[in-house]
């Protein structure tokens, strides 16, 4: 079977309602085998290269691709838990997208339970950067935890922290990592933060005092800006 025919046979798999949003080359090979199509690994990689050139897929690394035919299109954040099992997208990336951080970033921060014994690392893949940081198991919240609804956004194809959990993850890493700097208070707006939700999460993570002190700093920074604007208006 020609390269073009092989690629064409897999297109329905790429665009059907239950199409994989992220996939490994082996997934495509398995699809062909299930439909009675034999293809070698060199041929498999040729098809993937042609799809990549045609804008049908985007390569994350040698073992993972984003399916750009899926609807809506997958984001790089979705690749995180494929790179590291159980990883949760959090921190400044989530806060920027939710409007809590005033300076959004494309740098994707992820956390994972320390018991995985995986090396925390920063991966730069083209124009995208993903950072993986461990959280102690005592503060980790899995999907069966009573605080899971406070910690994770619903209805997403990947694990993503709520703004409240993302903010606390940022503070946790800052207070539990050597040479890490606390997030600047003037870079954030807390108007949309759910106070009850973040109180429950902060208590669980042992960050109640850290959160209160940091929040007071944000509020003071906001008041200073408001006072400065009033003085400027009176002139």
Describe the overall structure.
- The protein is an alpha+beta fold.
- It has 2 domains: 65 residues, Winged helix-like DNA-binding domain superfamily/Winged helix DNA-binding domain (Arc Repressor Mutant, subunit A, Orthogonal Bundle), CATH 1.10.10; 150 residues, no CATH class.
- It contains 9 helices and 7 strands.
- The chain has a 4-stranded mixed β-sheet with strand order 4-5-7-6. The chain has a 3-stranded antiparallel β-sheet with strand order 1-3-2.
- Helix 1 packs across helix 3 and helix 7 runs parallel beside helix 8.
Outline:
The chain is α+β, with helices and mostly antiparallel strands and 235 residues long.
Helix content: 40-55%
Number of strands: 7
Biggest sheet: strand arrangement: 4-5-7-6
Helix tally equals: 9
Question: Could you name the key traits of this structure?
Answer:
2 domains; 235 residues; 3-stranded antiparallel β-sheet; alpha+beta; elongated; Arc Repressor Mutant, subunit A; 14% strand
Topology:
Blueprint: H1 3-15, E1 22-23, H2 25-34, H3 41-53, E2 57-61, E3 64-67, H4 80-83, E4 88-90, H5 91-97, E5 108-113, E6 121-125, E7 128-135, H6 148-151, H7 163-176, H8 195-205, H9 208-234
Parallel strand pairs: 5-7
Antiparallel strand pairs: 1-3, 2-3, 4-5, 6-7
Helix pairs in contact: 1-3, 5-7, 7-8
